[in-house]
Amino acid sequence: MVILISLELFDGSRNLKKEEIGVVIEIAGNLAKVRSSRDGGCECHGDIEMVLTVQNPLSAKPGQRVVFEMPEANVAQVSLIIFIVPLVLTTIGTVLGWLLASNIGLSVIICQIIGGIVGFLLALFAIKKYDKALRNSEKMQPVITKVVI
Prior knowledge:
Strand content: 25-35%
Distance between the termini: 19 Å
Shape: rod-shaped
């Protein structure tokens, strides 16, 4: 996979963007399916190929080699979601389990364990929703930036 990094590849929010090279294999409206291999589009055998749906503002045609940008999510934001949210929700669930057990006379440890598990499961659900929203976001969708002749 060829990754070109230059100063133009940073947008205003400091998100890094990767440029990759691929071949357009199909057009559907303003979107194109682009085949890209790990080595940057070489037709070598044994390479892992990806087929991505990308925005096609340059009206590239099937068979053309193109350069496309793939924005990366803000690393700090994603790290917060993946690492801190489960920790916080698990802790909140454990504390709520302790409060529940203290008020109604149940086993404190069992209520804390159940509360922690429920908090952790809620965190997993929240991460899954966030991931889906990020994938469906137009600003996170790859965009064709050049047609290579």
